[in-house]
Design brief:
The complex is a heterodimer.
Chain A (H helix, E strand, L loop, with lengths): L17 H8 L9 H32 L13 H5 L22 H9 L7 H6 L6 H14 L8 H4 L3 H14 L4 H9 L1 H36 L6 H15 L6 E5 L2 E6 L7 H16 L43 H8 L4 H8 L8 H28 L8 H16 L18
Antiparallel strand pairs in A: 1-2
Chain B lengths: L3 H7 L4 H9 L3 H5 L4 E6 L1 H5 L5 H7 L1 H9 L2 E3 L4 H4 L4 E3 L5 E5 L5 E2 L2 E10 L2 E6 L7
Parallel strand pairs in B: 1-7
Antiparallel strand pairs in B: 1-2, 3-4, 4-5, 5-6, 6-7
The chains are: A mainly alpha, B alpha+beta.
Chain lengths: ~425, ~130
C-alpha cells in the first residue's frame, strides 16, 4: 500500500464524509486503499477498455462516415479501415504514447468480432443473434452529453453548436451529403432544423469518440503496469489517471465529416476546443453524475414528482446507480456490464466465483466493481481539478489548504444524498 | 520603452513562455499597440506542469494559443487597479479571479513581481501557469 501523509495544519473536517476528505487531502482516492480494491478496479479497467476500443472507433465512424444516412441499418458494422485506424495514443505512431501496445483494434476485440460467444459466422448473423458489442450503451452516453449540454463543465462546445458559423459549416456538409438526392434536399429546405439537430448529435458522437480514444489506451496501460507489479496501491492507480488527464488535456476536439473524397470541417481543430474542457469534464458531469432516470427504477409521471425538474439535480449516473437490479428490465447499464463480462481477466473471474452466487450473479458483482472503479476515476478528476485550479496538497500556506478543503467538501456534498454509493464502497461487504 | 515581447525575450526566466508564444503565433498580437495586461508564468511555473502536457499543447497550436490567451487581459491594469476587483475577463473569455487580501494572487498563482511597465501594456510575473475553470 502507498503511505499517505496527513496534513496537520488544518483542524479536522466536520463534514459527514470527513474520513474521505482527509484521505483526499493526503493524496488518496475516494476508494479505500486495499489490495483487493486495486485488483478489482484494474481488472475492470481492462474489461472496460476492450469494448471501449470498439465504442470510440464506431462513434467516430458514425460521426464521420455514416453521417446523415436516414437508414442507418449498418452503423454498428465497422469497416476494416476503422478497425485498423491507429489510436493517437498507442503504438509506434502515437502523438504521445500512453499504451505500449499496438495502435490498431485490440486483439481480444477482433477475436470477439469474429467469433463472439458462439462461433465464427458472418457479422450479420452475430448481430441478429445479439452476439455483439452493445453499442447502444455508447450512444446512450452520447445522448446524455447532448441533452445535458450547455451548463456542464467549463467547456464551450455546446455553445458553439448554436453559432451561425457552426450552422454554415453544417449546411455545407448537409448539401454535399444529399447532392443528387432531390427529395432529401427538398426536405432540408422545408425543415432545416430537422437536419441541423442531427448534425449536432453527430458532433457529440465525435466528441465522445475522441474522449474514449484516450481512455482506452490509458486503461490498457494501467492493466499492463499492474500485471508487471507496478502499482503499489489505489492512490498510485489514481495518480496515473491524474497524469494522463494532464498529458492529454490539450488534445483537440473536432468534428470532421468525409463525403466522397472530401473532408468537411464542421468543427475545425482551429476552434481551440480541448479534450479536458470540451470532452472530459462534460462527460464526467453528464455520465458519472447525471444521465437520465432508469426506466426500471423511477416513474416519469409528472404528478409523482420522482424526477427532478432541473437537470442539474439529476443523479442517475454510475456514482448513484443501484447496481443490484442489473440484468433486469429497464436498467440501461446492463448493456455495459454484459459487454465487460466477455473480457474479464482470469483473476477477476476467479474472484467472483468465490463470492455471492459465483458465476450466476457475475453481472451484478462486476457492476459493483465497476462502480468502485468509477469512484476512483472521479477521484482522479477531483484531484486533477484541484491541481489545475487550486493548490498542492503540501502547500505550507494554511489559507491555500483551507481553499483545497473547501473544494473537497463541496465535491463531497454531492454525495450526501441517500442514493450516492460513496458510503457503500468504503467497505468490502458491498459487493 | 520596450514592448511586452521585447521584455520577455530579454529576460531569461521567460524562455518557455517565449517559445510557446512564438509557436502559437501570438508574437504579432503582443507587439501590437494593445494595451494588454499579461500574467507571465516563469520557466519554473511551466516546469510544474505534469509531463506530457506541454508535448500535447505544442502539437496542437490553437489549443496552446487558447491557454496562452487566458494569461492576457485587454487593457492596462496595475496591481493597484486590480486590487479593487474580484475577477477580470481574459482575452480567452473566461474570468481570472483576483485576490489581493494578503498577497497579490491571480487564480491559484501568486504574483512574484508586479507592475513591469511595457510600451504596450504591463506584465505581472506569476509562479504558476493558470488554467480556465
Amino acid at each position: 500500500m502507498t503511505t499517505l501523509t496527513k496534513n496537520t495544519i488544518l483542524p479536522p473536517s466536520t463534514h459527514a464524509f470527513a474520513d474521505v476528505i482527509h484521505r483526499l487531502e493526503a493524496g488518496g482516492s475516494m476508494l479505500p486503499d486495499t489490495p483487493e480494491n486495486l485488483m478489482q478496479i484494474i481488472g475492470i479497467y481492462k474489461a472496460y477498455a476492450v469494448p471501449m476500443d470498439f465504442y470510440w472507433r464506431d462513434l467516430l465512424y458514425i460521426a464521420e462516415r455514416v453521417f446523415l444516412n436516414p437508414l442507418r441499418f449498418f452503423k454498428y458494422f465497422l469497416p476494416q479501415e476503422y478497425l485498423d485506424f491507429p489510436n493517437h495514443y498507442a503504438g509506434e505512431t502515437a502523438d504521445l504514447r500512453i499504451w505500449r501496445g499496438e495502435a490498431s483494434a485490440h486483439p481480444e476485440l477482433l477475436e470477439f468480432i469474429e467469433k463472439g460467444n458462439t462461433t465464427k459466422m458472418p457479422k450479420l448473423f452475430h448481430h441478429l443473434w445479439h452476439d455483439r458489442i452493445n453499442m447502444e450503451f455508447a450512444e446512450a452516453c452520447m445522448q446524455a452529453m447532448l441533452w445535458h449540454g450547455r451548463d456542464m463543465g467549463m467547456g464551450k462546445f455546446d455553445a458553439y453548436l448554436d453559432t451561425e458559423e457552426y450552422k454554415a459549416n453544417a449546411d455545407k456538409a448537409i448539401r454535399a451529403y444529399f447532392k443528387g438526392n432531390p427529395p432529401m434536399l427538398a426536405l432540408y429546405k422545408l425543415f432545416p432544423d430537422l437536419f441541423l439537430e442531427q448534425v449536432k448529435e453527430l458532433s457529440y458522437y465525435s466528441n465522445l469518440g475522441l474522449f474514449w480514444e484516450v481512455m482506452a489506451p490509458v486503461f490498457f496501460e494501467m492493466s499492463d503496469i499492474y500485471d508487471e507489479g507496478g502499482f503499489k496501491g489505489v492512490p498510485d492507480a489514481m495518480n496515473f489517471l491524474v497524469n494522463g488527464i494532464f498529458a492529454i488535456a490539450g488534445r483537440p476536439i473536432y468534428h470532421h465529416v468525409y463525403i466522397g473524397d472530401e473532408c468537411f470541417e464542421i468543427i475545425p481543430k482551429s476552434k481551440g476546443f480541448t479534450w479536458l474542457y470540451e470532452a472530459a469534464l462534460p462527460y464526467v458531469e453528464a455520465v458519472f453524475y447525471r444521465t437520465a432516470p432508469f426506466r426500471g427504477t423511477k416513474s416519469y409521471n409528472a404528478q409523482a414528482k420522482q424526477v427532478p425538474e432541473e437537470q442539474k439535480d439529476f443523479h442517475y449516473g454510475i456514482l448513484y446507480a443501484d447496481v443490484f437490479p442489473v440484468g433486469t428490465a429497464g436498467i440501461p447499464p446492463t448493456l455495459l456490464m454484459d459487454d465487460m463480462l466477455h473480457f474479464l481477466p482470469p483473476y477477476l473471474i476467479e474472484y467472483y466465483q468465490k463470492h455471492c452466487r459465483g458465476e450466476d450473479d457475475m453481472l451484478v458483482q462486476l457492476g459493483i466493481t465497476f462502480q468502485r472503479s468509477m469512484y476512483n476515476v472521479t477521484s482522479a478528476v477531483i484531484q486533477a481539478l484541484r491541481t489545475a485550479l487550486l493548490y498542492p496538497l503540501d502547500d505550507p500556506n494554511p489559507r491555500h489548504l483551507a481553499k483545497n478543503r473547501q473544494f473537497f467538501e463541496a465535491q463531497m456534498d454531492r454525495f450526501l444524498r441517500p442514493e450516492a454509493r460513496l458510503k457503500d464502497i468504503q467497505t468490502d461487504r458491498y459487493r | 520603452m520596450p514592448n511586452i515581447v521585447e521584455i520577455a525575450v530579454a529576460n531569461d526566466q521567460f524562455s518557455t513562455l517565449v517559445t510557446a508564444v512564438t509557436a502559437a503565433g501570438l508574437v504579432d498580437v503582443l507587439q501590437s499597440p494593445g494595451p494588454f495586461t499579461v500574467f507571465a508564468p516563469t520557466d519554473a511555473a511551466f516546469a510544474k506542469l505534469p509531463p506530457g502536457t506541454i508535448t500535447t499543447l505544442v502539437q496542437n497550436i490553437p489549443q496552446l494559443a487558447r491557454i496562452l490567451t487566458y494569461h492576457v487581459v485587454p487593457g492596462k491594469f496595475t496591481q493597484a487597479d486590480l486590487s479593487h476587483l474580484s475577477s477580470i475577463d481574459s482575452v480567452e473569455g473566461s474570468p481570472i479571479t483576483i485576490d489581493c487580501t494578503e498577497a497579490f494572487e491571480v487564480k491559484n498563482a501568486t504574483v512574484i513581481m508586479a507592475d513591469i511597465e511595457a510600451d504596450n501594456g504591463i506584465i505581472h510575473v506569476i509562479d504558476n501557469v493558470i488554467l480556465m475553470g
